[in-house]
């Protein structure tokens, strides 16, 4: 069963988790121009959020911020911006609502924002992030910075972005996806069955 074709009124929370974890198992071991796999990156990002004291919604946002990459081939997103943050956030909104989806929708904008307001931040980006920054529009201009800062989710998006940048350590050890079953269950907005 494809999670993109299922709606929240059709499955239970445990069925959702099983399908989600199966997706990561099937597609998450692929690399994407980084030194870690998609799964390692997701789990490291969520672990960093948890260690930083983020609530369950932001931990789930960290875990699933790149979920749309699992629906794309590596070749597709190497030289094209497929707006994975928009695709992923649209899907996450249906399942989790805005508290999870909004930081995901803004995590690319947060990179552009940080490069604009903290010029030294650009030096911390991986080569793949530098490449994608160019595809995503480069640093924000002043008007874009002001609009970004006016968004009530911008601070969470910046936190997510910082974890995203750090979650590329080939030596890091993390808990598996099962560790996030209960937070996911708690955050899901499933219709009663």
From TrEMBL:
Judging by the UniProt lineage, the source's domain of life is Bacteria
**What Gene3D superfamilies does the record point to?**
Hypothetical protein af1432
Q: What is this protein called?
A: HD domain-containing protein
List the SUPFAM superfamilies hit by this protein, alphabetically. HD-domain/PDEase-like
Recorded hits in Pfam families, A to Z, give: HD (PF01966)
Entries under PANTHER family matching the protein? HD DOMAIN-CONTAINING PROTEIN, PTHR40202
Domain HD: start-end pairs: 40-106
């Amino acid at each position: 069963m494809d999670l993109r074709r299922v709606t929240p009124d059709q499955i239970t929370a445990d069925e959702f988790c099983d399908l989600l974890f199966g997706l990561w198992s099937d597609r998450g071991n692929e690399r994407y121009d980084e030194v870690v796999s998609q799964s390692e990156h997701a789990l490291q990002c969520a672990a960093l959020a948890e260690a930083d004291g983020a609530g369950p919604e932001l931990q789930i946002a960290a875990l699933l911020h790149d979920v749309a990459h699992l629906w794309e081939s590596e070749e597709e997103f190497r030289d094209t911006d497929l707006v994975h943050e928009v695709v992923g956030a649209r899907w996450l909104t249906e399942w989790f609502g805005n508290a999870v989806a909004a930081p995901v929708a803004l995590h690319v904008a947060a990179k552009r924002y940080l490069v604009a307001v903290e010029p030294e931040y650009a030096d911390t980006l991986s080569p793949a992030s530098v490449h994608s920054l160019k595809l995503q529009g480069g640093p924000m201009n002043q008007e874009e910075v002001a609009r970004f800062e006016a968004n009530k989710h911008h601070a969470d998006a910046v936190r997510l972005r910082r974890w995203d940048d750090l979650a590329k350590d080939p030596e890091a050890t993390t808990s598996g996806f099962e560790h996030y079953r209960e937070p996911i269950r708690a955050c899901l907005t499933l219709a009663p069955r």
